[in-house]
Amino acid sequence: MTHNAYTYEAYGVHTDVLKKTTLPIPEIGEGDVLIKVQASAINPVDFKIMEGFIKDWPQSFPIIPGWDVAGTIEKTNSEDFQVGDEVFAYTRPAFDMTEEHPECSSEAIGTLDGTHAGYVAVKAWKVAKKPNSASIEEAAAVPLAALTAYQALHDKAGISEGKTVLIVAASGGVGSYAVGLAKEAGATVIGTCSARNFDYVKGLGASDVRDYNEEDYLKGIEADIVFDCAGGKSTTDALAVLKPDGIIVSIVEFGIADIAQKADRKGVAFLVQPTGDQLRTIGKLIDDGKVKIPNITTMAFDNIQEAYEQIKGSRTVGKIVLKRE
């Protein structure tokens, strides 16, 4: 049995290297499930790997891009799922989680984990049943971005009620989830974005929104937590309003610990990890109406080139999702 997938066999720009191909449907091993892909989301990390910017992660060609998926269980070797279950998952190879999951020691970026395909095989512990209130397309927009925001705020920053949280790039895929998750935790949420996205970010739960194009746009802010989803000047600007005992968590500036130390502040960078348990927590928050699914732009699976062009423009509000017919 075969399925259609988009793959690349060399590093380069998507228009040059990304091609539609036919591959065998992946086999599943012990503790795995096979998901029939109905929707998959695109994230900046997908084109960064494709263009060769992250070569130190284990990978081999050909590669199917994409780590966000929503669909139905086609086959299962796990007692936690049955054929036909509607699920969502962040499928990234767990090459950095071998202490907790030694069975993943050989996982690498390639054709088994990619979601821009008809089927994907994945460890069941990375998977959760999708939120009941979410469509398949909405569910596909959740895993990577929501897990990143959740782990940044809860696992790294130690968010708690009463804290002031500044979210840099609050209208993007990760920032959008961070606004809702921070509000749900009882924090005062301030977001940065362009003026045209003010209403969108306030609608997610921010009490204050600042335009990063304005001079002194962070004036008057004293943040306990900064969640940096932008990098560059925005990181420096945000660090200047971080309280002495605060923390800045970045998903783009991997040297943030050194940068923050020079300002006598604490900084942490991290790589989001897959986990079905946290997806279940996030899914319940979505079903309970405590966290909103951000704006999504749905495109046909075969419009993948246009989708990558759009996300590379760095002006995407929310998430881009590819839907299979």
Task: Throw out a few tags for this protein.
325 residues; alpha/beta; six-stranded parallel β-sheet; 10 helices; globular
List the helices and strands and how they pair.
Blueprint: E1 2-7, H1 14-17, E2 19-24, E3 32-42, H2 44-50, E4 68-76, E5 86-90, E6 119-123, E7 127-129, H3 136-140, H4 143-156, E8 164-168, H5 173-184, E9 188-193, H6 198-204, E10 208-211, E11 223-228, H7 233-239, E12 242-250, H8 256-262, E13 266-269, H9 276-287, E14 296-300, H10 304-312, E15 319-323
Parallel strand pairs: 8-9, 8-11, 9-10, 11-12, 12-13, 14-15
Antiparallel strand pairs: 1-2, 3-4, 3-6, 3-15, 4-5, 5-7
Helix pairs in contact: 4-5
Report on this model:
- The protein is of the alpha/beta class.
- Helices cover 26% and strands 27% of the residues.
- It contains ten helices and 15 strands.
